[in-house]
Amino acid sequence: ALFSNKERSFYEQKIFSYFGARYGIFTKNGRLAIYLFLKAIGVKKGDEVILSSFNCFVVPEVILFLGAKPVYIDIDRYTNLNIIKLKEKINSKTKCIILPYHDGIDNNHRNIFEAIKGKDIKIMLDGAHILHSKSDNNEYSIANNKIDGIIYSFSDSKNISLNCGGLLITNNSYMS
């Protein structure tokens, strides 16, 4: 092994702390990080998960694997979720909204938070194509208590490539 369990734990905690996360797990790939998050929040057969229509096939694949239904939302010209369409699709089966950040931060996030206020809908940021910095605005970081989890991918096609691997970070104890 490259690191002992003690060393691995030390480095994991340093990375989680860097992002302001209390909990996290490194995974084989981003797909597994998505799966673990959705499983941890209780997504199951018959549930719905909202996602962008502009997305990698991996995301709906994980949703379908859990028996849930991917619900696609159109994007605007800036690749943000169309907030009007989003509000139309939210219902009692909606368990999670996956926010994609392909070319920057979704400028509709405040509207999305407002749309789900008072509802038991979790927010997962799909950070597969970005990597937040420590100085990022707390509105779209794990430090924001409106964000339930962030996944990252480190495959060979990503901004920070390790040729494989993923990361899930959260401040919620269901990942402990």
Structure report:
It is a single chain. The protein has 176 residues and is α/β, with parallel strands linked by helices. The chain contains 5 helices and 7 strands. It has helices at residues 5-19, 30-40, 58-65, 83-89, 109-115, and strands at residues 23-27, 48-52, 69-73, 94-100, 122-126, 149-153, 166-170.
Rg of Cα set: 16 Å
Biggest sheet layout? 7 strands, mixed
Termini Cα gap: 24 Å
Q: Return residue spans where pLDDT drops below 50 for at least 5 consecutive residues.
A: none
Helix amount: 25-40%
Which term fits the overall shape? globular
Structural class: alpha/beta
Write the layout of secondary structure elements.
Layout: H1 5-19, E1 23-27, H2 30-40, E2 48-52, H3 58-65, E3 69-73, H4 83-89, E4 94-100, H5 109-115, E5 122-126, E6 149-153, E7 166-170
Helix pairs in contact: 2-3
In short:
The protein has 176 residues and is α/β, with parallel strands linked by helices. It has helices spanning 5-19, 30-40, 58-65, 83-89, 109-115, and strands at residues 23-27, 48-52, 69-73, 94-100, 122-126, 149-153, 166-170. 27% of the residues lie in helices and 21% in strands.
Which key phrases capture this entry?
single chain; 176 residues; alpha/beta; seven-stranded mixed beta sheet; 27% helix
